[in-house]
Amino acid sequence: MQKLFLLFLALTISCNSSVSSSATKQEPVAELPKPTATPQIPEPSPLPTRKAQTKFSFNSHVGAAEMTSETEMCLVIPNDNLAEGDKVAAIFADYPKAQSLINAVVEKKLVKCGRKNHDVLSEVFYYSLKVVDGSYDFESEYQELNPVAIAFVGNPQPVNLKSGVASADLNSDGKVEYFRACTSNEGVHLTVWTGQPLKSKRQWHWYIDLSFDTVPSCKKKDYEA
Nearest-CA neighbor of 212 among 112, 121, 115? Predict the structure, then answer.
């Protein structure tokens, strides 16, 4: 009996020891994942800035235009930098008819267009224009008889057409420009004046050789330097 008691006591102590050892034994702590770096959000690309508008110049922003069909025109101008969609105003200023206005936009650059010989000092460039509004009688069979318009680009001021006379402040100096066209023996002179034509300062002059006889209507002030 005493032996049984001692055996039971030994077993009890052994079990308690195992439980205590299990209780005190610590499980290894799982390693926490290392924090990942916060992704850098790229800064938005800046919007393209609008190209500054070039200051108006009579030397590069004024040229001549003629109808090539009922809806298209040819522009000749000493400006190599016109882009598709640029607005163009064309004024048919032939005297004594009432003046008329056509608004158009640049379609594309051309090697050459029109049938007129432009006698100007500067190098000229050619563009096709699409008519937006306005119209002018177009002679398809005898195109060389079609009149030539004074055309300009880069003017933020609207053209005023009143009682058959067109005017506009082209260079935004507060002074209004007027337009005139007249004929010599074989050509046409186009002019722009700050104020009344022939009585004010002539700002621009362009001559086109038509290569056929015309009835002269010009005055010396139309073409003399």
Answer: 115
